[in-house]
Amino acid sequence: MSVGRPETRYVAVGDADVAFQVSGDGPFDLLCFYGLGSQIDLLWDLPPAPAELFSAFARTIEFDRRGNGASDALPHGGLPQWEDWADDVSAVLDAAESDRAVLYAETDAGPVALLFAAMHPERVSGLVLVNTTARYSIAEDYPIGIAREVLDAWLGWVARSWGTEQFVRALFPSVNDAESSRLHARMHRAAATPRTASEQFRYIFEKVDARHVLPSIRVPTLVVHNVANRYIPIEHGRYLAGHIAGAKLVEIASEGDVNIAGETIRTVVEEVVEFVTGERPLVEVDRVLTTVLFTDIVGSSELVAALGDRRWRSLLDAHDRAVREQLRRYRGREINTTGDGFFASFDGPARAIRCARDIIDAGVGVGVDVRAGLHTGECEIRDEDLSGFAVHVAARIGALAGPRELLVTGTVRDLVAGSKIQFDDRGAHSLKGIPDEWRILAVTNA
Q: pTM of the entire structure?
């Protein structure tokens, strides 16, 4: 079936416009999230066009994240965090009137898709990860990553060669005809400038680490990877498949391409069709990765004694209004109140940090000292409530905080790496009733 080129539409996400297209009318939705260097209009010029193949069996939604392709560019030094890019996914799904979709993510889009699938499993019916990874750079516990000196040399090459046919031929050895090289190079130039590409890749390769997220992925997952991939070796795909429960790994023969190119896309489409149309049990969402916040007023008993019940009640009402206003601004969800405090959750740790700081500042304006604690982890969903280990950790962290202080776990710090949020390391602590020691940090600048 041949599908005509769809109209490019836009959805506002914050101050930026995000471009997306919808094609086909299959029985389920497939959201295609490509890496840096794609441009949804020019993708249709590449033979074969991915969306044209996908649209034969699915209602296909393609989009360019902020800072790439047909979407708004980013100012130099003004990169969004990966949870901001996850907001692009939510906004596009809403604009396309899609309640639930299979997420198809390639290369550097993979960590964002992982984060979204863990935090919004109710909107993801399946996950397809193509030539991607949870982490790019090397670490003591991740020896398959890219060494720093190799990364620096590669980023310098990106800054010099981005948008050239030579760059395309190096990334895609199988693209050996002049016309295909020309089309790919033109798309790269339309997607980003050399400096923007280098800046985004540095952030993604150095700062993004989605390994914490993998145990929380509970949707059916297909991992597809080029066996001879020179830039994202097959070990990354095997790591993903080995750390996501029930994931299926398909290894594709290639000539060293960084991603799927040319006629190989047909093989991948066949794998995706089999994956999403086969008989699979429906996964009921009963657990979700979320950031948990606990706040309370410091010295509330002394305040009650000093003010009396009536004045205390008036002060507490003003505090509650201020907290709820900040939760509304930052899309936090109030789970419960604890007398003089709040229990809330967020779908992004950076957003939770900024909300907590503003709650503390709002408390000062009301006349109370608020303290807060944050942790990101997997929680059980019980009607409108959340429970589980992560909730207990966040509560214990909040109890350690002093007046006007926000404490977070090392997990939260790692998930916002690369942001301008600054921390003061408070060392390892034992938490009452919680096994192991926990790295605690105070937020000093959000």
A: 0.86
From the number of C-beta atoms within 10 Å of its C-beta (0-12, 13-18, 19+), residue 370 rates as: buried
- Cα separation, 171 vs 106, in Å, equals 14
Instruction: Assign 428 to helix, strand or coil.
Output: strand
Tokens of 8: 């490019």
- CA–CA gap between residue 376 and residue 379 (Å, rounded): 9
The three-state secondary structure class of 276 is helix
- Partnered with residue 249 across adjacent β-strands are 223
**Torsional class of 37: left (φ above 0), alpha (ψ -120 to 50), beta (otherwise):** left
State how far the Cα of 72 lies from the Cα of 61, in Å rounded to an integer.
18
Tokens standing for 162? 């981005």
Count Cβ atoms below 10 Å from residue 17 Cβ, excluding itself: 14
Q: Tokens 């604009």 label which residue?
A: 95
- What CATH number is associated with residue 356? 3.30.70.1230
Instruction: Mark which of 237, 255, 277 sits at the end of a domain.
Output: 277
Q: Which residues lie across from 29 on neighbouring strands?
A: 59
Crossing angle for the helix pair 82-95 and 110-119, to the nearest 10 degrees: 70
Does residue 77 sit within a domain?
yes
Structure confidence by residue, pLDDT tens digits, 107-162: 999 999 999 999 999 999 999 999 999 999 999 999 999 999 999 999 999 999 99
